Amino acid sequence: MSAFFFFKQKTAYEMLRSLVGSEMCIRDRYQRRVHGEKISDKDMESEDKPSNANEGCPGVKSDEAGKAANCAGCPNQKLCASGVTTQVDPVEKEIEEKLSQIKHKILVLSGKGGVGKSTVSSQIAFGLARQGFDVGLLDVDICGPSIPRMLGLVGHEVHQSNEGWSPVFVDENLSVMSIGFLLQKQDDAIIWRGPRKNGLIKQFLNDVAWGELDFLIIDTPPGTSDEHISIVQYLKMKESDGAVIVTTPQEVALSDVRKEISFCKKTNTPIIGVVENMKSFICPNCSHESHIFAPVTGGAEKMCEDYRLKLLSQIPLDPVLLISSEKGKSIFETHPTSKVAEGYKSLLNGILSFTGEEKKVET
C-alpha cells in the first residue's frame, strides 16, 4: 500500500487529487523551456485545444471559447463558455501572496545525492536563527525527508488552524515543515509519481502558515527533476533570493553539480555560491587532516573559477558534526570553536552578504 494513505491530514489527499490533472500541461511546457526547447505559438495554441474538441476550436484560452460557431455541439462548450478556462490559477496567486511575507528565499541544491544538502540546510537554519533572524526550513525531499531528525523533531506532528498548517517550531524564531511530520510510521516509503510530489510542494507553499520570515531555507532532493522545476516555478525568485549549491571535492560529484548549475542558469535562479562539503577528514584523536575525496580535477575551487561562481566555504568532514546532526543540535552550540563551525560561519556570511543583510557572523 502506498504511503499516500498514511497521511494524517485528509486535506493532503483531497488537494493532490484536484491538482494532478491541471499540473500536467503547465509542467510539461515548463520542462520543455528548462531543457532549452522553444515553445512556438503553434505549440501553445495546440496545448490550449482539448483532444476531443471540434474542428476549428479557437482554444480554451480564447475570448471566443464556447461562443464561436465552431464550438456548437462540442462536449466542452458549456465549460468554455463559463469563462473558467481563461482564469488564472488562484492557488498560484495565493502562493505569491503568502510568499510576499518572506524576505529571502534560499534554495539548497546539488545534482548529486549524499553530499550533505540536508546537513547544510539545517545548519544554515540554526545559524541564521542564532543571529536573531526569523527563519523557516522547508523540506521538499519528499522521498527522503531528513530534516525532522537533524532539527531534533522526530515524532512531532503538524496541526491545522484557521490559517492553515502550523509548522513545527524548534525555537520561537525557527520553524520547520516536512512530509516526515505527516507519516504515521517513519519507515513508510513514499512511492509517488511527479504530479503528487508537485501537488504537495504547492500545498506546503500555500497552506503552511509561515507568517513573516527573514529567511525561508528550502532543502531539496538531488537532481534537476519535478521537485526542482515546481519549486523554482512557484517561488518566482527575486534578486535577493538565491541558491546555495553543495558539492564534495571528487569529480563523481562535480560532474552532476555542473548540471545543477546549468539548471539554475536555464531557470534564471540566482546562484549565491558553492559549498565544498567534506573537503577533508579531521581525525577525532590526533586532529590530523586528510583528503578522503581527492579533488583530481581541481575540486570546487576549479569549478567555481570555470563558472565564475563564488566559493562560499570549504567544510571539513568531522565526526562532531555527524553527532550534532544526529542529536538535532547546532554545531554552533555543540562545538562553536571547531573548524566545521568556522566553515559554516563563512557560509553564513556569504549568504548575508548576498542578501544585503548587515549582520555579520564573527569568525
Structure description:
There is one protein chain. This protein is an alpha/beta fold and 363 residues long. 39% of the residues lie in helices and 17% in strands. The chain has helices at residues 10-34, 41-47, 77-81, 90-99, 117-130, 147-150, 194-207, 226-235, 251-266, 299-307, 319-326, 331-334, 339-355; strands at residues 102-109, 135-139, 159-161, 164-166, 168-171, 174-178, 213-219, 242-247, 271-282, 289-290, 311-317. The strands form two sheets. Strands 1, 2, 5, 6, 7, 8, 9, 10 and 11 form a nine-stranded mixed sheet that branches. Strands 3-4 form a two-stranded antiparallel sheet. A hairpin with a 6-residue loop joins β9 (271-282) and β10. The longest helix has 25 residues, at 10-34. It is elongated and about 85 Å long. Mean pLDDT is 84; it is low at 1-30 and 37-47.
Outline the secondary-structure elements.
Layout: H1 10-34, H2 41-47, H3 77-81, H4 90-99, E1 102-109, H5 117-130, E2 135-139, H6 147-150, E3 159-161, E4 164-166, E5 168-171, E6 174-178, H7 194-207, E7 213-219, H8 226-235, E8 242-247, H9 251-266, E9 271-282, E10 289-290, H10 299-307, E11 311-317, H11 319-326, H12 331-334, H13 339-355
